[in-house]
Specification:
homotetramer, Rossmann fold, alpha/beta, 7 helices
């Protein structure tokens, strides 16, 4: 069975930040979709904030198994109507993976019911992710821990409901920890927050990240 | 320590349905508040939909430990601004108990992130509640099961996230079951849904119901 | 990928009760294995109490993805050494499905850490199972509820730890309810208790039961 | 209401290690009991491995609300009969707090059903504990995080079942993280594992540790 994925990106930093534009000529959403298509068993397409209906029409969502959401600078520009539409599709069974700063996306706060606040520091730090639930499908084949060299620090306290399981825990050199792989079910759909992917720090070189994203 | 409770009621059926008006001359909210005040250790006051700010000003919520919410016919009349205000106070630590048809209250759907749908039938049926988590504080001192004679049937599937624990399960003679005591944490606050209390069927005669409501 | 399943049966009632022997000429374990083999994608074999090492040698368990356990009359005859061996394999990733009276099997109590007590009544009653977690893989494709005509009643309170999710709830005409589909993770393995299957009441005619058993 | 606590200690290191003997003239169990008695609302007594029935007679356990268990070097010397007795009392409602190396105590493995393995390193490192569930009673009044100067490192992966909530997360300078405050319910009792307290590194100076232990 082929999983149908849509990678949604704001496509803002790519237009306004030359470093980001150079790193991701097809946009971060394009890069993520390419990694998913390369993983096998997945057909990934892209959608962005500036598309009509943000690229998330009723018909397209009805034909989507998993939606990946990358947002950071323009959460407020996402239409409330589209947020409700996405929430309806999650409750009806669509998977939703929130990437990086999407902890503050309207759709994540809408589905969690909490402020989704966290502490943060942008210093290009090493992040070490520990696997704490070995038999969760999303951790299949991963080592006990793996590292990303240049990440933004996201730390506890993290204002989300208790997840079904804590799948990853992150360690940062500055003394912080973070529950960095959290599955929540909402209706018949699963919501998974996974923070790596700060825009000027390309995480794709680490083979473990696309492996995580390609799982559901 | 005295727990400060506010019992919020729509106060709609009491004005429009003579049976309800006769059963609850002080309103259902007034009856519940009286039962809580009689329980000891609690100071309960009331608030209703028609009060300014629905009786839920910032100052009053800041001075409230637990808010009990009874709603059925007028969910749509509750202001979105007040819903956000109550959600903020729950996330900051206020307890919230949803009674009866409040599974469809805006504030419950806002905090759960799901449609909160269920099946139902109004036939004045016997409901038997089984205690499935004996050491949850809310079940302290309750027998293995207890019955309410004339309840509306609320049944599975119930569209809410998995709770921290399933504290009560209800049995109905028509073949339905229902997870009828569900604690969810949201931020620093606990949300508890407890369905007994259909308006024309007075449940207060059963001593176990006020015992549950008086717990937090 | 083919799932390698072993169906373990006491094979006691089949030898001592003529009704059971006539109903299941190949034993209940044989009948269950045949249903799994017919489901596709599974290779199921059998093992019984009287086999050397109860049919559960180190080598065989190392080559098993899922072990199904049917026990009722002879829990005390199972060797403690084999129980520890099975527990080790579950913690290392093997799935374990406990059927019917296996709630009192040594291996289930060993993995739960609780007495696993429940209430029961043998009266050939109708059992209605409601699906309470629609997107759990084990409930895939099932209707909202389905019925088994002649089951032993198993009811709350059920002395097990809170599961990751409550997947099924059972209703009985006598006024009882039961959490009848409970996944617990232990180490890298999943343990799933599913009670249908009282020996003189053949449940196999209902197509939904093999569908549940064939899932993991 | 006064909480009746028993602090159980192996009392082995105190007899064999001069550093430990000098640090804790009344034994670590005596020091912990004194801190609890000083906290108010608690009456704490002690019991040790060498006492008859390890100091845990049926009558004494029947009169105990919370048992604190400190063990490290002599897990194998604890009688299986006493372990079963303690497990029965937990399932019947007694609280159990496991300290430091008690993750490998027979009683903890008996109640978890898993190997309870973890990674470790003894190097007198700084441990920073983050509070991840603010409204859990055991975290009441604690700051966002607090530090212990000289602890043994205990790290993930930690082989226990998913807890009801993750209350504390620990950070270590060497790159490790640990779920260091985990409540599990077993029957009517709550089991709480809390790792600080390596024998040659006195943690008592930090006021937050007795605050945690005094909570239940």
């Amino acid at each position: 069975m082929i999983i149908k994925a849509v990678v949604w990106g704001e496509n803002v930093h790519e237009q306004t930040n030359q470093i980001v534009a150079d790193l991701y000529p097809d946009g971060m959403h394009g890069e993520i979709a390419a990694a998913l298509n390369a993983a096998g068993g997945i057909t990934a397409t892209t959608a962005t904030l500036r598309d009509p209906e943000h690229g998330l029409s009723e018909d397209r969502l009805a034909d989507t198994d998993v939606l990946l959401w990358w947002g950071h600078a323009a959460h407020g520009d996402v239409s409330d109507e589209i947020v409700e539409r996405v929430a309806d599709h999650v409750n009806a069974g669509m998977g939703l993976i929130l990437l990086h700063s999407a902890h503050f996306a309207k759709i994540f706060k809408r589905l969690m019911g909490t402020p989704c606040n966290l502490t943060w520091r942008e210093a290009g730090e090493r992040e070490r992710l520990w696997v704490t639930s070995r038999n969760h499908p999303i951790a299949a084949g991963l080592p006990d821990h793996f590292e990303l060299e240049h990440e933004e620090m996201y730390g506890e306290p993290f204002g989300v409901p208790e997840p079904l399981e804590t799948v990853f825990l992150s360690w940062f050199p500055g003394g912080e920890v973070f529950r960095s792989g959290l599955p929540h079910k909402r209706g018949a759909g699963t919501v998974f927050y996974f923070p790596p992917g700060h825009e000027p720090y390309p995480t794709s070189p680490d083979a473990n990240v696309p492996r995580v994203l390609a799982t559901p």
